[in-house]
Amino acid sequence: MVNSSLAYEILLYINSFYFGLFATCELGTLILKSVLIIEKYGIDKDPTKIGQDYGVLLGLFVIEAIRLILGRKGSLSERDVPVMFSVLLTIPSMMGVLYLLVLQVVVLRIEYIWCTLMLSLQMLEFLFAAMFIATMCKGPTYD
User: Which spans are transmembrane here (predicted)?
Assistant: First the structure.
């Protein structure tokens, strides 16, 4: 049987480093894209869409940071409530990554790779967090 707590903690640890890389690269590419779009198409190229991309990216940064902190805290102390909140925050975080993957003004090929890796990590964390919660909520067995 797989120790879901250990696997979940390892995934959170990996994701905490990958999230820093992902956030830095996404912010850099979004700044680059906004400069190139303004330069190429002029300022009339719907600046609200670029502002919406920045808003989604900022929201994703906040939600993902809170999700990782709650997941790590709940996993290390073996409490199920912070992990449940972390699992609930996974859904808006996945939606933010999907927005960056599909609905941005311009999506680069490298962003497909970054966002796909982020979604894969989040899905694995979701699966192992659900297994961790199921084992925590189960009563003790006496053999």
Answer: 12-32, 53-70, 82-102, 114-134
